[in-house]
Each structure stands twice: as C-alpha cells, then as structure tokens.
UniProtKB/TrEMBL annotation:
Protein's UniProt name: MMPL family transporter
Residue ranges the record marks as coiled coil: none
UniProt record similarity statement: Belongs to the resistance-nodulation-cell division (RND) (TC 2.A.6) family. MmpL subfamily.
Record's bilayer topology term: Multi-pass membrane protein
Residue ranges crossing the lipid bilayer per the database entry: 178-198, 205-223, 229-249, 276-299, 305-329, 360-384, 524-543, 555-576, 588-615, 636-655, 667-692
Origin species: Streptomyces muensis
Taxonomic lineage of the native organism: Bacteria, Bacillati, Actinomycetota, Actinomycetes, Kitasatosporales
Protein location: Cell membrane
Length: 732
C-alpha cells in the first residue's frame, strides 16, 4: 500500500490542476443533485419488528390519523380567571376552526370533546392530528396553527404550541462551530509556525466535508437521513479531515527541511504518513459501518453516513493535499533556524532541544507504576457515575426553554401531570369484529394497572374489529416507571386476551421510543465486544505484540467508561447544569453510548498507531525497551497532541447548540478524545510499556509466522531508494 500511495502522491503533485478540478467538479455535481433531488430530513426513530412499530404500522392503515404527527395548542387563562368565561371559550373555538383549515390536518379535538381541561379550569388543550408523519409536516401547516394561537392571545389568553409535530428537522451551524474551527486553525498555526501550512491542512478538510455533506443530502430522497446523521458526519468529517492532513503535511515539511525535493517529499509523506492515515481511517470506517449489524435502520444510516464522511476525508488527504502541495512548492519549507526546522534536522534532540511532550513522556516513564495506578484510579472514579446510566430518546421537554414546544410541554406537565406529555396507545383487535365491546373491557383492565393515571374511552378505527385506547401514565415519557408500565401492559396481554377475546399491542411515540432505547441498550455490549475484538486483531497484526493490543483495548474501555461517567454526571444528574446552560437533565440519549464507542474506537486506534509505531521502530533498531518508549514518543507526541487538540475543539464547538441530541454527543466525543489522547495514549500507554519492558514486544513464534506483516507507516518505503523526479516549481 505504501508504494501505491507514494505513486498516488507523486501523480497528484504533478497533475495538481487536474486533481483540484476533479474535486471541484464532484462538489458542484453533488451540490446540484442535492438542490434538485434532495428531500427532507427524517428525524423519526423506529425499529422494525418491535411490538410498538408493528402496531403503529397497523394503525397507519386502519386509522392513519392516529399514526401521524400531533400538535397541541395549550391555552392558559390569566390568574384569577377560568376558561369557562365566554370570551375565552369563543377564542378557543375560533382557534379550533382555524386549525381545521390548516394543510395536512386530519382532525382537531377541542377540550369540550376530549375533556383536556385542568382541574382548576385555567388551562386547556386543543389536539391537532396530522395525516402525515413529522418529517412530512410542512412548515406552512405549523405556521397556520401558530398564527391561530397568536390570535387567541388578543382575548387575554396565554398560548403555546407543541406536540410530536415539533422537533429538529434541520442542521444548524452557528458561531460556536465557527469558533471551534478558528481555534483549530490557531492550533495548526502554532504547530506549523506558518499560516500557509495551517491553511493547507484546513482546505482539504473543508472541501472533503462539503463533498460528504452534499452527497448525503443528495441521497435523502432514497434514504431516511436524520439531521443528527448530517451533523455527526459534519463533526467527524471536519475533525478527522484536519487531523489526517496534519499528519501528512507534518511529515512533508520535515522532509523539506532536510532538503528533500518537494515532489519526492510529498510522495514519500503520502506513502508513509499517508499509509497510517489510510489505516486509521479504515478503522474508523469499519467501526462506524459496524453499527449496521445492530439492525436499527436510523443507526445504520447514521453510521454509514459518518463512515462516508471519514472516507471522503481520507481520500482528500491522500489526493487533494498532495495536489495543493504542488501549488505551494518549496514555500511549505520551514524557515531556516525556526523551531520546526530544528526539530526536523535534529529529530533525536541530540542538540539539547526537548519538547514539552517529550519531557512529559520521560517523566511518566521514570515512575511508571505510580503513573498507571494514578491514571487508572482517576479514570475509574470518573467512570463510576456510568453505573447509573439510563437511556431514553429526548422529547420536547429537552427543547430550549424559550421555544414554544418547551413552553407547551412545561405547562401540560404542571397543569395535567407529566403523563399527558407521553400518552400510550393500546391497539385492541378481535377475531369476530366485536371490537367496541372488547375494547371497553380491555380499557377497564388497563385502569387497574399500577402507574396509570387515566384511561380514555376506546376510539374506533376504520376496522370494526379494532379500537384504540389512550392510556395516560402517572409519569413522564422518559421515566423508568413509564417503561415499567409498558412492560406491565404487555404482561397483562394474555389475561386480557382470555377474558375479553382481544389481543392488545402498546404503541405511540412514547412506546416506540422506549422500544428503541431498549434495543439500543441491549445492543451496546455486543457492539463493544465487536470493536474490542477488532482492535485486538488489528493491533496484534500492526505491532506484532500481545501486550500492546491488550493495553490499547483496556485503555479504550477506560476512555469510553470515563466519558460516559462524565455524561451521566452532567446530563443525567445535573452537575454544573446551570453553569453549562443545560435546558434539561434526565436520561442520556439512547444511541450516544454506541456512537461514542464506535467513534472513539477509531480515533483511539488512530493515536495508538501514530504514537506506538515510533516506539516499536526504536525497539527494533536498539533493543532497549525503556529508551524505545521515550525516543519513539519524541517523534510523534507533538503531532498527536496537536491532532487531539484540533479534534477536541471541533467537537466542543458543537456543544453550545440548542439540540438535545447533538449537545451530549458533542460533549461525549470532546471529553472522550481528550481523555483518550492525553490520559491514556500519552500517559498510560508509555507507563505500561515501560513496566512491561521487553515483554511488551513479545509475540509467540507460531503466531508471528501466521500473521501478515502490516507496514502501516511505510517504514520499508523509507529504506528503499526512490527515483527523484524533479520538476520546475510553479511560478510565484
């Protein structure tokens, strides 16, 4: 692979205008396709095959409005007044009439029909039922509802609009993400000491992200792609794109400082550092693609979309970056006498120059046992809150406090009880067509279950053998007791079948979300086993050692556990919630642990390869175990530190978003990268290798013969004389 990448880098350098043109044409074509054919993003979370989804699909045929999105218009009378006053009842009636004329609205049910009036008669709810799912609800339809509610306020009422029809259906880029990129650029400038080199690392990442996102948006008509999938692809594509360019460009500039011809230098950097980039990118892609084995469609799309963004980032790094280097020529050479030039010409620090990172590794290696105990103890302590991890999908209770859907949610919670924000639908079916009678009997049985606040009378569907019963729990949609109620209803199904002749199935948005969270929770451990097993296999082949992959796997698990512990402490327990501006605390987003595991696995292997490969090379050359750790780290600790800082700032830039899905994911990835890079790879890894000594590089002879010899950094390429192909530098 190193030879192929060497040739690719040289070819891209020589044909730089063609390579850049191809990338620009691809980008223009994808943007055009996205604009012409791109559809709406779909933020529904479903799991085919679950009881709740099967029942919802059935309702979609026999009672479409029950399976569609719903909106709530919440009316509150001024203090000291009741909604029974004539002016208020008239205003509510006008709002109902206006809502029925909104596009896509199937039915409107006022408080006089549903009985949705609070006990103190100060608050009432008008239910609006759409004939389509939330992803298909047009903004113009919601605008009609909101304008009707605003008109009601002229009577003195306070109104807010919420319900399942509201939610994030777009990707929002704000100042915080731009600041994150700006900080990443600052890290690049400090690392390279050059604005040109910093820009050269950023351009392939930006163009790669643009291509990846345009490609995803162009696929929306064919696949259900969520806004979370787009944002995750954006975060990962940008972060790894900058990092991968950083790795290759660092090697290129080091070689330029030693007098290597620019064309040969970028070819050699592409064959060496580029080989490591391809390997690291492949591990990230494999881990994200492995999300598809869980069998949850939205998670599969999320994983494959992010994997596609990483693939584009790898391709940009090994093709577009060499082409851009061709335009820059010798201008990327570090200035003579600069720190960058000194590090390149004196890589071993023989002239007395030792970087802060190298001194840190020497300090760690000097007291390895104390370091291992201290770091492991701290990470285990950080991981302890993860033992209380609860998973759920966010609802409007997680929306920004100033949003209309959050105001409606809070008002309903206060005046009617938390269960009104997450009702359960129970579908009853009989074999003999006596649906109404059986439904009434089933409703009576459901009223006797613990955790039920109220059960509304059964509603008929277009099939006479069916009814739909709305069950209002005593607790909110993300409460563990609501999840228990769903299990209790299902456990009562045999008894209801025996006494009423009706089969029942629990469905509705709340039940679907509970089933999705349960499936994700059950899938977490098998997925961790898959990625840990993969890491053991890959790293055993790369480093031809047993200790190195075991140490890497344990360190990865500690990083994931510590990150989840911090997520639980902040987002579930509410530590520093006010300081960090968290709008809601409660269960963790149900797919966060799996996303964190997949992404962090790839990034951990990335840093492991770049850091430990230099140590192994020193060991092969010197046979001195402890010295190989310190000298090997000297060559890579600076670039690994810069890469981790860039990754951290990019992820952290998405934290201020008012998005209940993205905020915890961004936080988890940011702290996960920081913990894995600085606590595990740059601290725990050198300490463990120093403790293990010679045994760190031991591999049974029979296994050594069976394993392929992977050269992920192209070291053999560096030892092979390359033909110099010099070319006149571009005009300046």
């Amino acid at each position: 692979m190193a030879v192929l990448l060497h040739r690719l880098g040289r070819s891209a350098y020589r044909h730089r205008k063609l390579v850049l043109g191809i990338w620009l044409v691809i980008l223009a074509a994808l943007i055009t396709c996205a604009g012409v054919f791109g559809g709406k993003l779909d933020d529904r979370f479903t799991v085919p095959g679950t009881e709740s989804q099967r029942a919802l699909d059935t309702l979609g045929k026999t009672l479409p409005e029950a399976s569609g999105a719903g909106a709530q218009i919440v009316f509150t009378a001024p203090e000291g007044h009741h909604l029974t006053e004539a002016r208020y009842t008239a205003a509510i009636a006008k709002t109902e009439a206006a809502a029925t004329k909104a596009p896509q609205v199937k039915a409107v049910m006022g408080p006089s029909q549903s009985g949705a009036v609070s006990a103190d008669r100060s608050t009432a709810i008008v239910q609006v039922q759409y004939s389509v799912q939330r992803a298909e609800v047009r903004p113009s339809s919601l605008d009609v509802i909101e304008r009707a509610a605003e008109k009601a306020e002229k009577s003195g009422l306070t109104t807010s609009v919420g319900g399942s029809a509201y939610g994030s259906n777009g990707v929002h880029i704000g100042p915080s993400e731009i600041i994150g990129v700006a900080v990443a650029v600052l890290v690049l400038v400090v690392t390279f000491g050059s604005l040109l080199a910093a820009g050269m690392s950023l351009l392939p990442a930006l163009l790669g992200v643009a291509v990846g996102l345009a490609g995803l948006l162009a696929l929306t008509p064919a696949f259900s792609i969520s806004s979370t999938a787009i944002t995750l692809a954006l975060m990962l594509g940008l972060a790894v794109g900058i990092d991968y360019s950083l790795f290759i460009l660092t090697r290129h500039r080091q070689q330029l400082a030693r007098g290597t011809d620019p064309q040969e230098s970028i070819a050699l950097a592409n064959g060496t550092a580029g080989s490591a980039v391809v390997f690291a990118g492949s591990t990230v892609i494999i881990a994200l693609a492995a999300l598809s084995v869980i069998g949850i469609p939205f998670l599969t799309v999320m994983g494959l979309g992010a994997a596609g963004a990483v693939l584009v980032a790898v391709l940009a790094a090994i093709t577009l970056l060499p082409a851009l280097a061709g335009f820059a020529g010798t201008r990327l050479t570090p200035q003579p006498g600069s720190k960058e030039a000194q590090r390149a010409t004196d890589p071993d620090g023989s002239a007395g120059r030792t970087t802060l990172g190298a001194r840190w590794v020497m300090t760690v290696v000097a007291k390895p046992l104390l370091t291992v105990l201290a770091v492991a103890g701290i990470l285990v302590a950080l991981a302890l809150p993860a033992t209380d991890l609860r998973l759920a999908l966010p609802d409007n209770g997680s929306a920004p406090v100033t949003s209309t859907e959050r105001k409606a949610y809070d008002t309903v919670n206060d005046k009617f009880g938390p269960g009104f924000n997450g009702p359960l639908l129970v579908l009853t079916e009989t074999d003999k067509g006596a649906g109404a009678h059986a439904g009434a009997q089933a409703a009576q049985k459901l009223r006797n279950l613990n955790g039920v606040m109220t059960v509304l009378p059964p509603a008929p569907t277009h099939d006479p053998s069916q009814t739909v019963i709305q069950v209002i729990p005593k607790t909110g949609p993300d409460s563990t007791r609501t999840g228990q109620l769903v299990r209790d209803i299902r456990a009562a199904a045999p008894d209801i079948r025996e006494t009423t002749g009706a089969t029942i199935a629990v469905t509705g948005t709340t039940a679907v979300n509970i089933d999705v969270s349960n499936r994700l929770s059950d899938s977490l451990l098998p997925f961790i086993v898959i990625v840990v097993g993969l890491s053991l296999i890959l790293l055993t082949m790369v480093f031809r050692s047993l200790v190195v992959p075991l140490k890497a796997a344990v360190g990865f698990l500690l990083s994931v556990a510590a990150s989840l512990g911090l997520v639980v402490a902040l987002f579930q327990w509410g530590w520093l919630a006010d300081t960090l501006g968290l709008a809601h605390t409660g269960p963790v987003v149900s797919f966060l642990p799996i996303i964190l595991t997949g992404v962090l696995f790839g990034l951990a292997m990335d840093y492991e390869v770049f850091l430990v490969s230099g140590m192994r090379e020193e060991w092969v050359h010197t046979g001195m175990a402890r010295r190989s750790v310190t000298d090997g780290a000297r060559h890579s600790v600076r670039v690994v530190t810069a890469a981790a800082l860039i990754m951290f700032t990019v992820f952290a830039g998405f934290f201020p978003l008012d998005d209940a899905l993205i905020k915890p994911i961004a936080f988890a990835l940011a702290v996960g990268v920081a913990i894995d890079a600085f606590a595990v790879r740059l601290t725990l890894v050198p300490a463990v290798l120093a403790l293990a000594g010679r045994h760190a590089w031991w591999l049974p002879a029979w296994l050594a013969r069976a394993l392929p010899d992977l050269d992920v950094e192209g070291t053999r390429l560096q030892k092979t004389p390359q033909t110099q192909h010099k070319e006149p530098e571009p005009a300046r």
